[in-house]
Amino acid sequence: MLVPAPERILVMKLRYVGDVLLATPVLSRLRESFPKAHLAMLVNPGTDDVVRDHPALDEVLVLERGSLARQWRFVRDLRRRRFDLVIDLTDADRSALLSRLSNAPVRLGYNSERRWRGVLYTQVVEADRFAMHTVRYHLKAMETLGLAGSPPAPFLAVAPEARREADRLLRETGVDGARPFVCLHPGARWWFKAWPADRYAALADLIQQETPAQALFLGGDQEQSLESRIADGMKTPFRSLIGKTGLRALAAVLERAALMVSNDNGPMHMASALGVPVIGLFGPSDPAVWGPWGDGHRTFYKGLDCRACFHPDCFRGEQNCMRLITLEEVWQAVLPSLVSV
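RESULT FIELD:
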């Protein structure tokens, strides 16, 4: 172990919602190993609600944006906290610099690109990010500290006030509390990671025509442009909470779902962490690395080589990897999950 008994630990994950959630097993491992330590986590704005109620954490810090003066004040505040161990799970230059500026005597981090940032850590974690699931990749930092064992599962807490808000939202949206519902999330950070909206509409119709379940669409503000397209394409009632939930209320809605059908995104990982069966639709990202953690899930992935056009665009047209996932194969995966509900 690099430090015998750290008193103040900072974990950093400056990425997106799903990334932060997949880092929570590290929090569980640290808390069980150092029960008396002060444990804090630094995350990007907009992702803090993922870990706000995590029982292992004493403190959640949100990265300061804006002017150089504001950012420097944030760095000074970080130094005043006197962390003796910083674990940077981000694998990026900015977080590596923050790690060094914290003045912590022990700093662990990843450097998969073999860039200059490696010199900012006292120990670089050796791991191949594409050779294992992201949960195991994060836990390689724990093995560097000598903390091994079976991987803890990602954890997402649901606050009582979030459950009350979910009650209201579901009632206002017309969800019948006596019947099960399936959550469908048609959004993704990039369009080429999204299953076509018309197939989500057709899938929702099948769910509501062939099973006792209701279909409920979820999404953030960026999915609002899909709402009318999906609603116009449906023959059965359209129920939607797109743009109406924050992360905490979204978690409270998800925990009640019978099933989640989703592209590769943060809410998919939220459902998985809450024990909800997930059918994940994957395009350029490999579910062996980014899939829902745990048993009882199903993923679709065509395994195309996307290196030539992964970002910022895809040039395959109708042969786009998401379009190769058919409505019929997804429906055949959904149906067995709902026949007994």
